[in-house]
């Protein structure tokens, strides 16, 4: 069973920073090189649909939602089976539960249904 575990969420004031981490483990990670996966961060605010925040393809290329471009940076460490999201200049509208997701394909997308594996989420709260 594949497991994704997020950490690093918390409460910050507007303008602050947080770094989220997502550690992967489980059967498939023993069989496949982590670098072959598409990884992504999604978020869901109360009363809103889950939305894609950032993705990183197997080759390391990245995409970002317009709302976070220039503020968030997605990265991964294949050797550690870990995914990260550095979030700077946080704003109250960034408040949400943040989820990491994985799909065993090289390319990504912002459609949540594309992803096979999800973490349990980590809460980010930004106060004004």
Description:
The chain has one helix at 27-31; strands at residues 3-7, 10-13, 18-25, 38-44, 51-56, 62-64, 72-77, 82-87, 96-103, 117-118, 122-127. Helix content is 4%, strand content 48%. It is built from 1 helix and 11 strands, in the order βββαββββββββ. β4 and β5 form a beta hairpin. The chain has 128 residues and is mainly beta. Strands 2, 4, 5, 6, 9, 10 and 11 form a 7-stranded mixed β-sheet that branches. The protein is globular and about 40 Å long. The protein starts with a strand and ends with a strand.
Order of helices and strands: EEEHEEEEEEEE
Estimate the mean pLDDT confidence: 90
Rg calculated over all Cα atoms = 14 Å
Q: Which percent band covers the strand fraction?
A: over 45%
Number of strands: 11
Q: N-to-C terminal Cα separation, in Å? A: 40 Å
Number of helices: 1
Uncertain runs are: none
Give the fraction of residues assigned to helices: under 10%
Envelope shape: globular
